[in-house]
Amino acid sequence: MNGSVATKDYTIERLCKDKLDDLEMLHRAISRKPHSPGYFKKKYDTAYTGVENIGFLAYNARHEPIAFYGVIPYFIRYQDQLYLAAQSADNLTHPNYRFKGLFAQLATLTFDLAREEGICLIFGFPNQNALHGFLVKLKWHLTEMMDCYNIPVTLVPAERWAKKLPITRKIYQKYQQQVLKSYLVNAKGIENSVFRDHFAGVNRNGHYLNYRTYHDTKVIKVGNAYLWIKIRNGLIIGDINCEIEHFDDMMERLYKLAFKLGLHRIQFHTSHQTQLASLFSERYESIPSYYVLFKDLGSDIPLDKIKFTYADTELF
After folding, report:
1. Fold match between 4-119 and 147-290+308-312?
2. Distance separating alpha carbons of residues 222 and 255, to the nearest angstrom
3. pLDDT (tens digit, 9 = 90+) per residue, 106-139?
4. Please, what CATH class does the domain formed by 147-290+308-312 belong to?
């Protein structure tokens, strides 16, 4: 569906490049934390997959954006084959227009469009508030709940205090850059660790990694391990490439680095059954993390064979 749908109260139109400013306007009306300029243009620019702008906006009678649902096309790799899939991403409804069924309507249109564009599978990580809608209204399938590992580092986090004032934020950013200088690797991401465990996962080729630069992430080398990280409210690990025998040394060095950076925690999210899940669970306590849900549009991938780390979420 490439046109628009009109009702008595609102119209629904497919997302396109000309409507990305409307999406940004809607987000600003809902969120207290605005994204940087151009964020949504970069996020929905998935031309490298051959498919882009998979989503729908709803407008009121004054043509003001009031709701949106969209998915982000990715490739899933399973048994050396690539499958065009997508991640459920932004689900936004203006407070004045909630409980009118807009989410379900926009999502259904998006799923139909995804099928037309050749997307065979949609995955997502909804929060507790959205879980009922995905499972009951949209008939998604739940496969697992990821684990989150929070490793405390310091009770006096310099990163948090530095954010309070522009001058201290600037000083801390320079300090952070200086500390990380000897750890940084000239790479935009790392290979998906789940492939080493013979699971299916997001295919992180060069095109994908170039696309993912709309978020500020870094690759560092700690000991003999490579980590894809971001520093925001702690040291957040997206994924790790590390041999088993080097894991403890890597974590000890990483803890010292996080302490030196004045970060209050190290955090990692992972699916079950992977090698990284085993290594973390044997050493650290976990808490429940994200629900892993799928909307199968015709793939032949066993859903329980698809695994994720935090790097695969659109939040990283």
Report:
1. yes
2. 10
3. 999 999 999 999 999 999 999 888 899 899 999 9
4. alpha beta
